[in-house]
Amino acid sequence: MTPPEHTPASQRRALAPDTSRLDPRAARAWTEKMAVTAIGGGIYEIESDSGHTYAVDLLDGKCSCPDHQMRGERCKHIRRVALEITGGRVPAPGHRAIECLACGRDAFVHEDDPAVCDDCRLPSGTTVRDRETDALLVVVETTDDRADEVTVPRQGTLADFDGGDSEETTVADYPNNRYYPRDDPVVRAVYPFSGDPDTPFADLRKYSFPLSRLDRVAPRPDRDPTDAGEYLAPA
């Protein structure tokens, strides 16, 4: 079984509490040197101290080792995977390991979430403030699309865009976005009180921003969130 690229594996090492009170399999799970790699879908590859490699299906509680296959025991490999997850060394089922696109730190996120850590990601419904216009918005989604790869319609004059006649530009090249990281993840957000007050939230126009341009804030009813300013990149 070959793990996907960039999937981190824990280092071989012993994990030792007071094993004298544990049953033998639990004690070996703590003390033997094993390397655990998350494959995805709740499957983990275990490289044991003996040099053998086994596959653990944690969701079904199964292991490919002889102890589990022939004796039906909850083997040391299944126990070790649980220990590695609890210790934060490998992701739990339904999660994956990433290098955050915003801050560069290693983190675990849900398998379907963008490669942005919880500290940096702006969840749907988060109130944020635009650093350039001071306007309030509500986040629709944080993506793992880069600002220099997402195109949006141009608005404003050609001088704003350094000339050219293309009808589109990237989020990174949009006026007022040029001083933010070009590889920033793109966040899509709306002005919740703009336009017709009867317009459903899902139908409001979405705008694309570099993540670094938006600050997470608590709602402030004394501010007018429709004061958008002149440089906004439509989604």
UniProtKB/TrEMBL annotation:
Biological classification of the source:
Archaea, Methanobacteriati, Methanobacteriota, Stenosarchaea group, Halobacteria
Pfam families to which the protein is assigned, alphabetical = SWIM
**Which UniProt keywords are given for this protein, alphabetically ordered?**
Metal-binding, Zinc, Zinc-finger
User: What protein name is recorded for this chain?
Assistant: SWIM zinc finger family protein
Residue limits of the SWIM-type domain? 54-86
Span list, region Disordered:
1-22, 156-176, 213-235
InterPro entries in the record = Znf_SWIM
- Bias type Basic and acidic residues, positions: 213-226
- Species per Swiss-Prot/TrEMBL record: Halomarina salina
Instruction: Write one Gene Ontology MF term.
Output: zinc ion binding
